[in-house]
Amino acid sequence: MSPQDLLNITKEFGAPVYVYDAEKISSQYERLTKAFEGVGNLRLNYAAKALSNISILRLMNSLGSGLDTVSIQEVKLGLMAGFKPESIIYTPNGVSLEEIEEASALGVQINIDNLSILEQFGSKHPDVPVCIRINPHVMAGGNSNISVGHIDSKFGISIHQIPHLLRIVDLTQMNINGIHMHTGSDILDIDVFLYASEILFETAKNFKHLDFIDFGSGFKVPYKTGDIETNVEELGKKLTAKFNKFCKEYGKDLTLAFEPGKFLVSEAGYFLAKVNVVKQTTSTVFASIDSGFNHLIRPMLYGSSHEIVNISNPDGRERYYSVVGYICETDTFGSNRRINEISEGDVLCFNNAGAYCFTMASNYNSRFRPAEVLWFNGKAHLIRHQETFDDILRNQVDVKDLFEPSRKVMAD
């Protein structure tokens, strides 16, 4: 996509707006598939939580992807988008047994990450195939909020609880058909990933009827020109060799599964917003845009750095700006960034806005969530309308009849 294409989208659909490039999503999917071409059976399950618009899910399904879900709502979205139940894996955390049973009744692959639910589900449904999420106690991820495989994590069954796990499986005679782990997001050191995989292989030896081993995901993508990223090609070669060796020892050709989310959609996404005010203070030049962390919370929540480009003035001289939003709290997208000179009315483009951006948007300050647009085959397609005031009120119940205007007694 060109900057002019993005500007044309803001003219047609307004701003702020999210835009996703289908070609980039497809190329990322192909890149990951090629990196593991030495594996006999490979399954990529797109992590729906990264970007769950039903049109994006339909695109993923058309590429041959499976679907990784973490809620019953994502399961139902996946089925609506055309995914077959057997191509959906459901990996919740801390949900009720009732929700897991509801997902199971829909025919999807269940993935359980705690002993309590494992025992309850296995006792009631011993014939239903179940995957088990293991916590390998490996610290990985670019931020403490997205590192989920360490010893204090709420996710997964500890490798130190394997004897207890095996006792439950033996007593319930439940069907364990998969082993899973996910250590975190923004993993850069593939040696850490490979170390965790060895733990998973060792754990898998305890189960004689596996169909797949799921290594999660968490591959780091570049957030700016020259940024470092996970070398998936190198990881593919090394993990493929280890996986094929394990399958030979196990005596069965298993499926190697991944759950990429950010890797597939992050770089395909752009967030476009107009500049309302350029404000000079004693030490800073602020560019205030018509958005805030209600639309893009990752910089405030994770300290993430999204490259910001002035697509209205791509050839202007660079100056230092702090780009801020309209939320009446600290609401900063980037401090002292070198950006081509900004004028009021210019459109700023935030790169890497495909993953965990719109899906984490809210109506904070009673603001509308923005539109979403898919760029496909050289054309812009609206895949979500910008919200209206009716959307803000849609599920509210106005109990105005309970209240009467206050009548103050006036003194003589």
UniProtKB/TrEMBL annotation:
One of its GO terms (biological process) is lysine biosynthetic process via diaminopimelate. It holds the Pfam family Orn_DAP_Arg_deC. The modification N6-(pyridoxal phosphate)lysine is found at K49. Gene3D superfamilies: Alanine racemase, Lyase, Ornithine Decarboxylase, Chain A, domain 1. The active site is at C328. Its EC number is 4.1.1.20. Its cofactor is pyridoxal 5'-phosphate. GO terms for molecular function: diaminopimelate decarboxylase activity; pyridoxal phosphate binding. Keywords: Amino-acid biosynthesis, Decarboxylase, Lyase, Lysine biosynthesis, Pyridoxal phosphate. Signal peptide: none annotated. It catalyses: meso-2,6-diaminopimelate + H(+) = L-lysine + CO2. Pyridoxal 5'-phosphate binds at G218, Y356. It is an enzyme of class 4 (lyase). PANTHER family: DIAMINOPIMELATE DECARBOXYLASE, GROUP IV DECARBOXYLASE. Homodimer. Belongs to the Orn/Lys/Arg decarboxylase class-II family. LysA subfamily. NCBIfam families: lysA. Specifically catalyzes the decarboxylation of meso-diaminopimelate (meso-DAP) to L-lysine. This is Diaminopimelate decarboxylase.
